[in-house]
Amino acid sequence: MRLTRSSLAAVLPSLAAVAIGALPLLASAHTGVDGAAHHDTGFVQGFLHPFTGLDHLAAMVAVGLWSALIARSGRDMLWAPLGFAAMLLAGALVGLAGVQVPGVEPMIAASLLVIGLLVATRLRLPGPVAAAVVGAFAVFHGVAHGYELSGDHGAAAAVAGMVVATATLHAAGIAIGWTLRQRGAWLPRATGAAVALFGAALLTQLA
Question: How crowded is the C-beta side of 78, counted as CA atoms within 13 Å?
């Protein structure tokens, strides 16, 4: 389906409503592996999970943003989001299984740095390569979520909700990116630089 300004105008209010509804959750710290609380959970809790960590939220939106900024066609915009979502799911399953993966938090921070730079430079990569680059980082985002959900009842439904939320955040990023394409080069560069600086700050804290 061809993406037009009118279709974006119809989609943006819904995406904004999702984001606004999740804003209170951004005040919650990302609990990490050791801080996970085991309880009953399900699809809704899983859907909300990516919104509880600003690092995950920023990465997922930035992937969609980058995809829209570099796309030559509607199909081009799907490679990176699909690669990220697929590998996030794979990582979540690894985390749920309790497999210990080293460097999860540093790699999440590095993902923000790299994806932010991709946005700022609007570096265009072949679709499969773009999917592989963001997918490699998505594994670590998924592992972190899997660790936090491990042991919860209804974890499978929660993972499904998390993947749907990831797709929603990618769609929000695509909508924002498509709008920024029409606003000159400086605003996308500033947005990407902000994401990259966020990632650099997180890496500094972890060092």
Answer: 6
